Amino acid sequence: MSIGTFTVRPLDPLQDAELLHRWVTDPKAAFWMMQDAELQDVEREYMRIAAHEHHHAYLGLHDGEPAFLMEKYDPRYVELAGLYDPEPGDVGMHFLVAPTDRPVHGFTRAVITAVMEELFADPDTRRVVVEPDVGNKAVHALNEAVGFVPEREIDKPEKRALLSFCTREQFEAARGVSA
Predict the structure, then answer these.
(1) DSSP states of 128-149
(2) Phi, psi of 97, deg, nearest 5
(3) Which residue, among 24, 41, 42, has the nearest Cα to 33 in the 3D structure?
(4) Buried residues in 80-103 as b, exposed as e (16+ CB within 10 A)
(5) Does an H or E element contain 118, and which?
(6) Phi, psi at 115, each rounded to 5°
(7) How big is the chain by its Cα radius of gyration, in Å?
(8) Which of 67, 69, 132, 152 is an S-S bond match for 62, by CB 3.0 to 4.6 Å?
(9) What's the CA angle centered on 30, arms 46 and 159, to 5 degrees?
(10) What are the N-acetyltransferase domain coordinates in residue numbering (predicted)?
(11) CB of 46 closer than 8 Å to CB of 11
(12) Is the overall model pTM greater than 0.85, yes or no?
């Protein structure tokens, strides 16, 4: 059974802010740490990302409709600077699935798979780095399902995080794709 087609486009911080505001303030997005954000806070945050040379935000579409947020960043300069020893080809990632009243079984796993495919579509990407909150057990399970291997806990200014890595080979093995 196919879940549908996933695509991404660059996020427009002003046009997409209202939609993003609904997503990031939803109770299911607690680990996004924007529960009390006002619309202007969301606009400001994504304008900051849009202006950043090493951080990019994308709106993920499912069959042409907005369904998830994806952020890609260079961990040498953003999020993890000074917290681990980056390797050439490391790419940092965040993703958020839009809240829904009609969840589809397997949808979130399909989204993270699409995000990983998008990141590894760049031949320069050798490994994806994530740093979710240590308490976010649901995302740890999703990460492991697509090939991430936890390395260690780290302290970031806003949270205690689980630093995890996924190489192209680990992702392909998790998907059952032979190299």
Answers:
(1) EEE--BTT-HHHHHHHHHTT-E
(2) -85, 135
(3) 24
(4) beeebebeeebbbbbbbbbeeeee
(5) helix 107-120
(6) -60, -45
(7) 16
(8) 67
(9) 80
(10) 6-169
(11) yes
(12) yes
**For the chain, how many residues are written?**
179
pLDDT confidence bin for 178, thresholds 50/70/90:
low
Strand boundaries in the chain, DSSP class E: 6-10, 55-62, 65-73, 90-97, 127-130, 149-155, 160-167
Tokens for 58? 């994308």
Q: Which two structure tokens, joined as six digits, stand for 167?
A: 């190489």
**Two structure tokens written together for 106:** 């397997």
Give the whole-angstrom CA distance, residue 67 versus residue 107.
10
Taking only the tens place, the pLDDT of each residue in 93-148 is 999 999 888 888 889 999 999 999 999 999 999 999 999 999 999 999 999 999 99
Q: Which two tokens stand for residue 175?
A: 């998907």
Q: Which of 10, 27, 20, 114 is nearest to 62 (CA)?
A: 114
Report the C-alpha gap between 71 and 103 in whole angstroms. 22
In the block, tokens 């080979």 appear at 169
Whether residue 78 contacts residue 54, with contact meaning beta carbons closer than 8 Å, is answered with yes
HEC letters along 29-47: HHHHCCCCCCHHHHHHHHH
CB atoms within 10 A of CB 60: 23
Residue found under tokens 């995890």: 164
